[in-house]
Task: structure prediction
Amino acid sequence: MPTLGTTPKYSFIIPIYNEEESIAELYRRLTDVLEVLDGPSEIILVNDGSRDSSLEMMRQLHHRDRRIVYLSLARNFGHQIAVTAGLNFARGEAVIILDADLQDPPELVYSMIAEWQNGYQVVYAQRIQRHQESWFKRLMAYVFYRVLDRLANVRIPKDTGDFCLMDRVIVDLLNRMPERSRYIRGLRAWLGFKQTAVRFERPPRFAGEVKYTFKKSLALAINSLVAFSVLPLRLSTYLGLFAGSMAIVMAFLVLYWRIARPDSPLTGLATIMIAIFFWGQCS
Ligand code: UDP
Ligand code: MG
Result:
């Protein structure tokens, strides 16, 4: 990865998957913000296996503006891995993660930095409203964040995404965490330190289709529940115990049949049936 001369004060990490329609506008809005910040910045664009011209656009931006560096993953690994890759390369004292589609308005960074300067190590953006997202997505998000809140062992703030500012201390700790299936907003909350929210209304996508398909969102939701709650593990234990008890009950029934109805054609199969019940529950 090409590197910048001076050490930046702020690093912006932006995961990108087929966002050719948003990149130019993102660059314009973000660089306007950068102009008024109180120190140098770097922008780390992470190409998550895009199949459109996103990577080419990133290259051009890098040649035009040396504050821009880019990483390109060998295939589509998913948003969380793309952000993780970016975190490993970020050098700023404060690191900001935001989406490429401008649903995370770069201008909110001013309030985030103000809170950071007040001594908070994590400043996360909390959505008070989502504009123009389908009712199904909004309902799913509403239910998921509340279920996670009830089940998780850590308080993960509701209605927050990965849009946040993190102090170098937090980034260094995240980079040392070996978790392979990563739910960054959960890990971030788990670390503790001083955390606060800035609230915002989430605008619609600037352009293009949503890249977090239903399948990807569901996988993220399941990952987060498995990682931050013991309930799925408990459920599978209870299910195993239930299946085991049913096998014992069925074995007794088959034995009873064998003794009470010796002339039935089924009685000859008693041993096989008992074996099947137990084998079925073990496997
Ligand atoms: N993204 C990514 N890899 C993926 C899916 C999405 O890097 O496999 C990026 C995408 O380009 C965008 C951000 O993650 O910058 C959020 O994606 P999207 O806007 O589709 O999700 P939503 O806003 O619905 O959470
Ligand atoms: Mg989006």
